[in-house]
Specification:
single chain, 184 residues, alpha+beta, four-stranded antiparallel beta sheet, 8 helices, globular, NO_sig/Golgi_transp_ligand-bd, DUF2507, DUF2507 domain-containing protein
């Protein structure tokens, strides 16, 4: 398994370092509690980088290399988000049902809680070979009145203005290609 895992991670868009930390070290430390602990770590991460809008949330999720985020359905009490992209697909293919998306679920739950001002919880709603759908449920009657929600200051997301300045997330060496283009 070690050679196979090494080969998969070294060739992945996630990279050996991040892939090892995320899918080897953290599960080894957290054991059976991996999903639950990563959920709360995700909520804490959202408290570090709170964003005010859906668009900002989509951009930040991409910047954090969690994957490509898209809002699929929305009602007063729930939202369904699709998390996809090369990194998500590679993680699912590498670990299949064992792949934890607890970090992403906690992160999204807390961000939506900040944006709506109501308590929100998230879970994997549907799992596919190349994406997951995350269900976020909130209770409009149950306000998120904890201390951290009251003191939140939303951050401003850095977005490149032109398409040429945006690194393409699909290519692992896209920044290298961009630098080569600049030299020409």
């Amino acid at each position: 398994m070690s050679q196979k895992l090494y080969n998969q991670l070294i060739a992945s868009h996630q990279g050996l370092g991040v892939g090892t930390m995320r899918d080897v070290i953290l599960p080894a430390i957290l054991g059976k509690e991996t999903d639950e602990m990563l959920y709360w770590i995700g909520k804490d991460l959202a408290r570090v980088y709170p964003v005010a809008t859906t668009e900002d949330l989509i951009h930040l999720t991409n910047q954090l290399d969690f994957g490509r985020l898209a809002l699929r359905k929305k009602s007063n009490t729930s939202q369904v988000w699709r998390l996809s992209g090369v990194i998500v697909k590679e993680r699912i293919q590498r670990n299949e049902e064992e792949t934890s998306f607890g970090l992403e679920c906690g992160f999204l739950a807390q961000e939506i809680e900040f944006q709506l001002g109501t308590v929100a919880e998230a879970k994997i709603f549907d799992r596919h070979r190349d994406y997951v759908e995350i269900l976020i449920q909130n209770d409009p009657q149950n306000s998120a009145d904890n201390e951290r929600s009251e003191m939140v200051t939303f951050i401003n997301i850095d977005r490149p203005d032109s398409e040429e300045e945006k690194p393409k997330k699909e290519g692992r060496h896209s920044l290298l290609k961009l630098k080569r283009k600049e030299k020409k």
